[in-house]
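Hi W., the adenosine monophosphate complex you wanted:
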Amino acid sequence: MINLILFGKPGSGKGTQAEFLKKNYNLVHISTGDLFRNNIKNKTQFGLLAKSYIDKGGLVPDQVTIEMLINQVNINHDVNGFIFDGFPRTISQAEALDSFMKSINMKITATISLEAEDSILEERLIKRGQLSGRTDDQDIDKIRNRFNEYNTKTSPLKKYYNSMNKLFNINGIGTIDEIKNRLINLINQIK
Ligand code: AMP
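Structure:
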């Protein structure tokens, strides 16, 4: 089983690469951002709650996010593994994931961080916002708030996974294919 965490700031290419890795290694892709957006689209109570945080570029509270993630893992049986995209984003999410995985006899194989500078990410996000209509990608203040949230709450996870020898950094600048190849080389070495 391969269980990967794709890690990186907004716009670092997690979603794009997860789509490819999912097919290449036959994994289940779980994107917490996509799950929230689906709930928002379907106007669920849960979507309404998530929207109030997402619209400000903040993080959705841990407890509901963790529950949603665990439910998604639990509904997928007999799979080759998972790609967690955009989860965990806080230390308490990471701890909850670890203890949940342990309880079902699974573990994280690797946390792969896609690295790119803020200026490049800002440009990518603005372009993505124009194409997709995602409101949190269209406003520079919201984007910067997401970077702040990443710096304060999410980046400490690098130390967390590094101390378990599970952190791998990949250069996230280049063409989609170049980054794909870097990921394949890495995953084939560690799996
Ligand atoms: P993403 O599609 O991963 O960029 O996520 C979009 C937004 O959804 C984020 O800016 C957060 O508001 C929210 N979100 C996604 N994943 C999480 C998470 N693991 N914890 C808290 N909020 C999240």
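Strands lie at 2-7, 28-31, 81-85, 110-115, 167-171.

W.
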